[in-house]
Amino acid sequence: MRWLIVGAAVAFLTVFLALPLVAVFQQAFVRGIGPYLGALMHPDALAAIRLTLLVAAISVILNLLFGLIAAWAIAKFEFRGKGVLITLIDLPFSISPVISGLMFVLLFGAQGFFGRFLQAHDIKVIFALPGIVLATILVTFPFVARELIPLMQEQGNQEEEAAISLGASGLQTFFRVTLPNVKWALLYGVLLCNARAMGEFGAVSVVSGHIRGETNTMPLHIEILYNEYQFMASFTVASVLALLALVTLIAKVTLERYDQSE
Amino acid sequence: MNSVADIAAGEAEHLVTSASMRRKTKRHPSVIPGFGITLGLTLTWLALIVLIPIGGLFLKIADLRFGEFWSIVTSRRVLHALEISFGLSLGAAAINLVFGMLIVWALVRYEFPGRRVFDAIIDIPFALPTAVAGIALTTLFAENGWLGGLLAPFGIKVAYTPLGILMALIFIGLPFVVRTVQPVLIDLEAELEEAAATLGANRWQIFTRVIVPIIGPALLTGFALAFARAVGEYGSVIFIAGNLPNVSEIAPLLIVIRLEEFKYADASAIAVVMLLASFGLLLAINRLQRWSEVRAGRL
Question: Which residue of B lies nearest to A2 if distances are taken between CA atoms?
Answer without folding.
Answer: B110
